[in-house]
Amino acid sequence: MKYGYFDDTAREYVITRPDTPYPWINYLGCEDFYGLFSNTSGGYAFYRDARMLRLTRYRYNNVPTDGGGRYFYLRDGGDIWTPSWMPMKSELDRYECRHGMGYSMISSAKNGLAYQQTSFVPMGDTCEIHKLVLTNESDAAKDIDIFSFVEFCLWNANDDMTNFQRNFSIGEVEVEGSRIYHKTEYRERRNHYAVWAVNTTVAGFDTDRQTFLGLYNGFDHPETVFAGSANNSIASGWAPVGSHHIKAKLAPGESKEYVFVLGYCENPDGQKWESLGVINKAPANALLEKYATSEAVDKALENLQAYWSGLLGKFTVEAEDKAMARMAGVWNQYQCMVTFNMSRSASYFESGIGRGMGFRDSNQDLLGFVHLVPERARARILDIAATQFPDGSAYHQYQPLTKRGNNEVGSGFNDDPLWLILGVAAYIKETGDYGILDEMVPFDNNEELADTLFVHLQRSFNHPLEKTGPHGLPLIGRADWNDCLNLNCFSATPGESFQTTANFESGVAESVLIAAIFAFVGPDYAEICRRTGRKEEADRADKAIAGMIETVKKHGWDGDWFLRAYDAYGKKIGSHECEDGKIFIESNGFAVMAGIGLDDGRAKKALDAVKEHLDTPYGIVLQQPAYKEYHLELGEISSYPPGYKENAGIFCHNNPWVTIAETMLGRGDRAFDTYRKICPTYREDDSLLRRTEPYVYAQMVAGKDAVRHGEAKNSWLTGTAAWTFVSISQYILGIRPAYDGLVVDPCVPSDMKSFVVTRHFRGADYRISVDNSAGVEKGIKSITLDGKPLSGQVLPVLGDGRVHEVVVVMGR
Ligand code: BGC
Ligand code: NOJ
After folding, report:
1. How far apart are CA 155 and CA 158, in angstroms?
2. Ligand 2 within 6 A of CB of 555
3. For 500, phi and psi rounded to 5 degrees?
């Protein structure tokens, strides 16, 4: 069952009925101000940090779902409705929601009154804009009442939903004409306030929630709207809200436009007040003046669209397979930008208060956006590296506002250091900027401990070598990529964190995955050394990598596939000897990606075993058999019911590792099959089961052991975005940035007969047309660059700001 369609020309997903199987959201904002925006206008806004500077309140886990948003109520005589469907679940004569690149539009109609809401965050400003257009499509004049509604959050979202003894007494607002200011805590330590304004005169307003709604009413039955006029209430404590009452007279055929702005404003210390208790409104005035007219708003939307066209122009795809082309060329990259901005903080599955920027996650996210905004990737790398400890390990996450590492999920995840090498290598391959290696970067956010970024990489490289276990494999520490394989935790106390509790420091539990990641990223470290005149260090690195590969072959191989780990007793995990958890996806995908076993048949064996034991119609599950019981010595992985999350769910993040691994074997059909299964677009018709948005990847799809096999959860904020983009763009379509240029090395399904990729790379554009009329999976017969034959498969760096034509003929 479908709930909409892709409008590829407009780069929009068009939702055609409001009752989607889960709220289908979009992200407004790509700089400092953000809004989560669902297809029924639900969601919330925040400035920079979803926990500390939340502008509006949102109720996770609410019934009905999606509680809170920017709501508009319309009243036409006795008829009252919400044109975005929620919160009143109004019956509408028409409804459509278009989610585009950084903006959303909801259009609907009822009673001969057409409604259009365009919502976005303009570039360069800290506000959400909601432009409303009402059109009288009937042949009689209409007297319409419009009531707006937002509910303010008292800034700290965590405190806001826990500390009621204080919060019920601190709410404060100011109202001036059609501008409602939320200024809770401004009298003391805050220098910021929110404004909710409309560019017309109002008949009245409300700022006290109880007055507006009625104490025992929900958003679906605001007393004030039913009574037909506002009360001009001024909130004092309790729950401050912002509601305007506008009266609109519409002749037949007439349209009226309104611009609503929800803004965040700051004043420097010393300029906070206009007079005693009256806030300085200068920044709000400036902001609102800018967006006082529909024309200015339309222009700002055009700017935003131009920004996205520019970004998405850096990598485009044309192919017969429209689903693949739109995902790789548009939506996948869009999602990568969102994960860059949000990390794992705010989505409809991440509450915005829990998780900061992950060390591991942010490095991997980089792979998906470094080609779009390389300067921001550079800054991000330096921020991440500054949270590394002098011994190469790292805080597992850091706080976006302060950029300081924090201990909320502790440290000692022994895979963390290696992802920094991956991120930096990706950045250098994209930009050729070796200068980043000489940047002085603090350790542990302490300037006194600063050293060059190169030294950070060196410590990253050394970390797994210095911390090895009985088999010579890297110790796992708190966990590796799989946060739920907690081999030193031994938690028997409910509520204890699996990631930070360590009741049992074995000094023994080892990870084959970390060894494989080391073998994958190590060669980049060696190459960087070589290219920066550090030959001896490069040789040392090569030796260490070769040694690690030997160790994996010796102690990390189970006969038909790669082992996953050794537990705190030195027992195998991911072996045919185990009762449950005999085979895992991660170590197999990564070992083959690293090239281990390509020379001796193990790689092929491992991937065939993955296919045989782990593959399903919806993707590859994380391991099999699922753990049926809780294992003290394994931790969180065995805490999940079989088929969900890390316990044999289809944890999409690691599926592209297998896709890439398949391309190493030249198996394009298999690689694409793996790609396709987790790609949401191909499951658009199956939305009732899948539930989450057909335009973005989800972190997890329920595995074959689960009752709801095929159902997706945790859409948007997942490493799946970056890795699938790498798998499709660099390994299937095969356009891969490298130190000396752009490698062309497609590995496609044999029935993919042609495709065109345009790629911006180091100051020039390459238009690459690939002809696979030969119907092969891999192999290149010829390449021409601007009409001249090219020897080898590397397009040189041209950097001349021009477009270069590349023709690639595949064949044996
Ligand atoms: C989840 C993991 C996640 C971890 C973060 C666990 O509950 O299953 O996917 O990475 O929490 O702390
Ligand atoms: C989600 C986390 O964000 C990511 O870092 C981790 O690798 C996966 N879960 C697997 O546990």
Report:
1. 9
2. no
3. -110, -15
